[in-house]
Amino acid sequence: MSDTQVHLSAVARSDFGKGAARRLRRTGLVPAVIYGHGTDPIHVALDGHDLTQALKKPRVVLAIDLDGAEHVVAPRDVQRDVVRQVLEHVDLVVIGRAEAKARAAVADAIAAAEVAAAEAGIDVSVAVEAIEAAVAAGEDPAAAAQAAIEEAAAHDQALSAAAAAAAEAAEGEAAEGEEMGAADAAAEAPADDA
Predict the structure, then answer these.
(1) For the purposes of burial, counting CB atoms within 10 Å of the CB of 91, is it exposed (0-12), middle (13-18) or buried (19 or more)?
(2) What is the pLDDT of residues 64-87, one digit of tens each?
(3) Residue 77 forms beta bridges with which residues?
(4) Which of 11-15, 122-126, 179-183 shows the lowest per-residue confidence on average (mean pLDDT)?
(5) In the CATH hierarchy, which top-level class contains the domain 5-95?
(6) Residue from 76, 97, 90, 95 nearest 10 by CA
(7) 180/173 Cα distance (integer angstroms)
(8) From the centroid of its chain, how far is CA 24?
(9) N or C, which end of the chain is more exposed by having fewer CB within 10 Å?
(10) 65 and 44 in contact (C-beta within 8 Å)?
(11) Rounded Cα–Cα distance for residues 149 and 113 (Å)
């Protein structure tokens, strides 16, 4: 599997509420809940730094080690402090191996598209948005990546063509303005009587 799967260690927690969450965050831990697939919610605390780094990856899959048992999860809801942007709480949903592989395939496609777009001088965000839309529509991630690059290239070509047309129109208006100015100057000049 790709590097989208991150292994983290968790500790079970039994204290709940704002005060308990604040105490956890002061020690560098982030409260989290693991739920899904018909299991009871499991309240855990994760290392804040490691979790922050893991959440930077697109379509990340977390392998949470809790008392020797591994829970394969994906982030469902991430709550951050509005001002400081530090993690306050994370909801993690249990996923199966098939979904973990699908998330890894999409993440690999996004990474490949980002590299290809950067090399081609294309707007990376346009390529990523196109992949996300294609995958949401049920397309194969690799095919979606190729189509996204082509769509981003077409988008950039359209922008370049529009910019060239605008520059050409501006030059035409400037030249027309100069001609009009010359004609006005000629009309205002006194006529020579010979």
Answers:
(1) middle
(2) 888 888 888 888 888 888 888 888
(3) 91
(4) 179-183
(5) mainly beta
(6) 90
(7) 10
(8) 29
(9) C
(10) no
(11) 6
Q: For tokens 């020690």, name the residue.
A: 27
Q: Please, are residues 32 and 12 in contact by the beta-carbon 8 Å criterion?
A: no
Q: How confident is the model at residue 100 (pLDDT cuts 50, 70, 90)?
A: confident
Q: What is the pTM of this model?
A: 0.59
What are the tokens at 104? Answer: 């890894």
Quick check: 121 and 113 in contact, CB under 8 A? no
DSSP 32: E
pLDDT in tens, 104-143: 877 877 777 777 777 777 777 777 777 777 777 777 767 7
Cα–Cα distances in angstroms (integers) from residue 148 to residues 139, 156, 184, in the given order: 11, 12, 53
Burial of 174 (0-12, 13-18, 19+ CB in 10 A): exposed
Q: Can you read off the two tokens belonging to residue 149?
A: 């690059």
Torsion of CA 97, 103, 106, 112, to 10 degrees: -90
Chain centre distance of CA 106:
12
**Structural domain spans, the chain:** 5-95, 104-179
- Describe the crossing of helices 97-120 and 141-188 by its angle, rounded to 10 degrees: 30
